[in-house]
Design a protein that fits this description.
single chain, mainly alpha, 2 strands, Helix-turn-helix transcriptional regulator, DNA-binding, Lambda_DNA-bd_dom_sf, Cro/C1-type_HTH
Length: 67
């Protein structure tokens, strides 16, 4: 799954560690989500969307659409 977390985080001036602290996850988890190596759980995805005050679908994009 592709996402815009890195860009959103940069706009806020937040490090991966700071975002991880806010979300109560590890910095490695934030890095893995940003690089697409890990898809967050639905509760974590909603927490990320709330953190950036963005709709979920504006942050997360499937690799390819299914018909």
């Amino acid at each position: 799954m592709n996402n815009t977390i890195r860009d959103l985080r940069a706009r806020h001036g937040w490090s991966q560690a700071h975002l991880a602290d806010l979300l109560k996850v590890s910095r490695q988890t934030v890095n893995a989500i940003e690089t697409g190596r890990y898809d967050p759980s639905l509760p974590l995805a909603f927490a990320i969307a709330r953190m950036f005050a963005q709709p979920l679908e504006s942050i997360f994009h499937p690799d390819q659409e299914t018909p």
